[in-house]
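Side project, low priority. Logging it here so it doesn't get lost.
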Amino acid sequence: MFKGGFDIVHRGAIEIMQPHEQWDSSYASLGFPGGGSNSIPCTKPIIDNRGINHLERNHRDFPQWVQQVTEQLVENQPETGLSESLQTSENNIVPALLGELRPAKSARRNPTESAGQQHQWFAELGDQITNFSNDAKGGSTAKGSDDQSLNLMTLLLECAVAISVDNIAEAHRMLLELTQMATPYGPSCAERVVAYFAKAMASRVVNSWLGMCSPLINYKSIHGSFQVFNNIAPFVKFAHFTSNQSILEAFHRRDGVHIIDLDIMQGLQWPALFHILATRMEGPPHVRMTGMGTSMELLIETGKQLSNFAKRLGMSFEFHPIARKFGDVDASMFQIRRGEAVAVHWLQHSLYDATGPDWKTMRLLQQLSPRVITLVEQEIAHAGSFLDRFVGSLHYYSTIFDSLGAYLQSDDSSRHRIEHGLLYREINNILAIGGPARSGEDKFRHWRSELLKNGFMQMPMSTNSMAQAQLILNMFPPSHGYSLAQGDGTLRIGWKDTSLYSVSAWTSPASR
């Protein structure tokens, strides 16, 4: 166990966690010695209540409202024509929602009969959701923006059901209506969520006609939006610093260390760890880093910035870029050296496929036998049918939109950049691009359980990790909306009662 951890945790969380963790020649924004102020920053996330929208004043529990509405969809669906069974997984973040919702084969046999059943189902669904909403409000009918949000959500759910049974014509009709009713610049979270979900579902409908679509990805734009998200919300910082703490403890008294980042992006996570390693009582180790990604140009740029930063700290450092997916490379490419402590860091996201087939990724992890694997997972299932992914992602992203909308005005440029540049891309990838039915690859529902089944052992999170996570949340007041939870050796961060990201640490029995 790492000695004196809290002092270093405190220094790392306060001195290093600056509001704009971006690279520049002076490193002033990072707050390191010789690089500008070391004071606690007054960061952008500290926003007053003037940014709270009208809908959020009336619907403070928007994610819970979405969950209950989608539960109505699941519980009241017809016994035939839409699904054969509902099976609940104990690990799902929305247990009543993420089941095996599989369209019955008989739904496609008689198009005329099927269409009639669906129209009846759509009408009943709308009545059920409206009645449910009125009951939740004490029997009163929703007015104004609340009524509009209800109508949008009802139509979106109907459209998802139509897509799930391959009624493309009906889905197309409803999508045309949705795009006219909802805008991503709307004043309410519900309207913005519906607008982006409708756009993603429209992409799926188009892909159904044209075949599988792989959109071009502007990685620089994504990385820029990711950095804005890092500045506005605590989720990314929580993932970075919690993972760093586990890596730091695994590297205790090791002279040679090797960090493999499965999707390094701009490398925002690593300056904080470098700073602490450089000030160790026993002296800094020799650090090798393998950064993986798709663009060699961006990898080289990130490597130069990290190398320059390590040089300023007086730390011995090597950087090796690999512009391929982790699951598509051979273990020999990492050139693991004898006696070297290996750490693999994997911050999972839904922006694009960063690692390739899951089974190949697992096989490579077993071959590398890392001393520590830090796994950051979104608490959302990527596997299953379209309706599986739709219901789970609707609740998940409604929660994130709600967290942004609570403190940022509807016309805030940073909010739009996060929603459009990150969240929409993830929604589109889950609904229109990803999924085993569209990629041909089986995806693990939960990597934690898969690691356990394949012989990896979970390392409990230290008390330093929890203390550090709380320090991070304290930098994003008012903190009552964000939540921390610890259980089964895993740390989770969420918004209100919904878990959004989890961090766990694992080790291989054959680790070097």
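Brief comment: Confidence is low (pLDDT under 50) at residues 1-59, 78-119, 128-142.
Revisit when time allows.
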